[in-house]
Amino acid sequence: MQLKVTTIGNSTGIVLPREVLGRLKLEKGDTVHLIETPNGYELTAYDPSFAEEMAAAEGVMRTYRNALKELAK
C-alpha cells in the first residue's frame, strides 16, 4: 500500500486509510508507535502497559550495564 506524504496544517504527515485504522483499532487522537526494524519501519497501536514494562527494563539495563556487557561477551 502506498501512502502520500502531505501537508496537514503547519506539519507534514500521512493519512491512514479507514481500513488501516480499523485493523489497528485506532481512532482519532490515539497514540501509535513507530518502530525501526531490520526490514524497515513498523507502525503499531500504543500499548501503555508495554511502555511501562520497557521503561522498567531500560532502568534495569542502565543499573546493571556493566554486568550485562560482561555477560554479552
Automatic annotation (TrEMBL):
Keyword DNA-binding among record annotations: yes
Domain SpoVT-AbrB per the UniProt entry, residue ranges: 6-49
Gene3D superfamilies the UniProt entry points to: 2.10.260.10
InterPro entries: Doc_partner, SpoVT-AbrB_dom, SpoVT-AbrB_sf
GO molecular-function terms, A-Z: DNA binding
Keywords: DNA-binding
Domain of life of the organism encoding this protein: Bacteria
DNA-binding found in the keyword field: yes
SUPFAM superfamilies found in the cross-reference section: AbrB/MazE/MraZ-like
NCBIfam families per UniProt: doc_partner
Protein name as catalogued: AbrB/MazE/SpoVT family DNA-binding domain-containing protein
Species: Oleomonas cavernae
